[in-house]
Amino acid sequence: MIRKIVKDISFLEQKSECATKEDVEVINDLIDTLKANLDHCVGMAANMIGVKKRILVFCAGNMIIPMVNPVILKKEDSYEAEESCLSLIGSRKTTRYETIEVEYLDKNFNKHKQIFTGFTAQIIQHELDHFEGIII
After folding, report:
1. What is the DSSP-derived secondary structure letter of residue 128?
2. Is pLDDT above 90 for 136?
3. CATH code of the domain in which 42 resides
4. In a domain, 22, yes or no
């Protein structure tokens, strides 16, 4: 189901909780909502659709990849970036890392460990900030 994008800063500043198998519908809703916003969005965290769970989705080519309870294990080569967010107006500067290693669960709650670089790594870092209530 396509959900409305949350723009309430006080809600977005709240930390997210770990997701469980009962949150599978949130994954589906995030995928549907990202698909509906692909013309101006490349990733989403669950709090952007009103759910304080550690679930994100992002575009990789023409695929949408979900991550449940992701954790960055390593990060290398910091740089300054300027980002915008569907939940906010305008753009903001932040520090990102060129290469990250992430451990996460997929949609079926199978564990993965993967290295991401470049823009994909930047998207994942932006969405992980959402889990901590960091507004970028």
Report:
1. H
2. no
3. 3.90.45.10
4. yes
DSSP per residue, 77-126: EEEEEEEE-TTSSSEEEEEEEEEEEEEEE-TT--EEEEEEEHHHHHHHHH
Both structure tokens of 32 = 């549907």
Q: Supply the range of the domain harboring residue 48.
A: 9-131
Per-residue pLDDT tens over the stretch 4-62? 999 999 999 999 999 999 999 999 999 999 999 999 999 999 999 999 999 999 999 88
Instruction: Indicate if 127 belongs to the active site.
Output: yes
Structural domain contains residue 2:
no
| 3-class SS of residue 20 | coil
Catalytic residue, candidates 25, 82, 103, 127: 127
Write down the pLDDT at residue 89. 84
Number of domains making up the chain: 1
